[in-house]
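=== Per-residue structure ===
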Amino acid sequence: MPSIDAARRRLRLSDSHVSVLGLLVEEGRIPDELAQAYGELTEAGVLDAEGKISADLYPLVSTLMEPRVIARVEMTGPQGVTSSGAVVGDDFIFTHENWPGEAESEYVPAEPETLVWALARMVDLHRDFTAEVDSGEVIASTMGTLDDVIARMEAGQFEEPEAVAETAGAPVRLAEVLAHLNCMWRITVAWQGAEASGSELAVSALAVWDCGLEGYWLRELPAEPIAEGQVDASSELRVRRTSAKELWQLITDLLPDGEQLASTQSQAS
C-alpha cells in the first residue's frame, strides 16, 4: 500500500502508483489494470475524493514528470533483483529505494551534495578491509563461462571452486572469487545533455561485483552501457579488482557536470 510520512516528506509508491499519478497530471484515462492502484492512492490520502493529487506531492510529481537526470541502481543478490535510483528535476531531487520482495519503493527528497553518497549507500559501498584491495588483479573469460560457473555454484557446488572451474572450463580464480559473491550491481545514469543528439539520451554506467573477502571487482568487459542484444555467451569477460575509493570516484564520474546539464536546463526554461 502507498503511504505518506508528511513530517519527513517520505512516500512509498509502486510503479503502478507512479503511472496513475502521471496519467492524472496528463489528464489521461485510468485503465482498468490501474484501477486498484488508483483506489490505493485514494485510500492513502494521496488523492482526494475528486481524484486530485495532494499538494504535498507536487515536488515529487513535477520531478517524475520532467526529469533532467535519471539514475537507476540494479542490485542482484540472494533475494533477487531490486531496483532503486534517483530522479533529478529542475528544482528537486528524489531518491527511491526498493526493498526485496516488495512492490513499493520509498521516495525521499535529497540535496545535490548528497546524491553520490545516496547512490553509494544503495549499493552498500563500504570500506574494504581485505588485503591488496588495490592490486588491480584482472580475470579474463567469457560471459558464457561466467553463467556456467554461477549456475553450478547455485546448484550447490559453491564450496568447491576448483572443481567448478574445471568442469566449466573456467579460470580457477574466477570460481574462487565468485564463491564469495555477495551481489552484483549496476548503476546507469541518463540525461539529455549537449553530447546527445535529437531525442537520444547521454548514458553512462558501471557494473561491479561485491565479493566479500575477495573485495570489489569492476567489470570492464562487456563495457557498460550495454545495448539489448549486444552480449552473448561468446562475449569477452574481463573484471578487475578495485577499491571502494575508486568506486566512489567512478560513481561521481557517472553524473553529468554543470556544463553537460546546461543545455538541458536551457531547453527546459
Q: What stands out?
A: Residues 20 and 35 are 9 Å apart (CA to CA).
